[in-house]
Amino acid sequence: MNQQKIPATVITGFLGAGKTTMIRNLLTNAGGKKIALIINEFGDLGVDGEVLKGCGAENCSEDDIIELTNGCICCTVADDFIPTMTKLLEREQRPDHIVIETSGLALPQPLVAAFNWPDIRTQVTVDGVITVVDSAAVAAGRFADDHDAVEAARSEDQSLDHESPIEELFEDQLTCADLIVLNKTDLIDVAGLGRVRDEVAARTQRKPVMIEAKNGEVPAGILLGLGIGTEDDIANRKSHHELEHEDGTPHDHDEFDSFVVDLGPVADPAGFVEALKSIISAHDVLRLKGFVDVSGKPMRLQLQAVGSRIDHYFDRAWAPGEKRGTRLVVIGLHEMDQGAVKAAIEALA
Ligand SMILES: Nc1nc2c(ncn2[C@@H]2O[C@H](COP(=O)(O)OP(=O)(O)OP(=O)(O)O)[C@@H](O)[C@H]2O)c(=O)[nH]1
Question: Does 155 have pLDDT greater than 80?
Answer without folding.
Answer: no
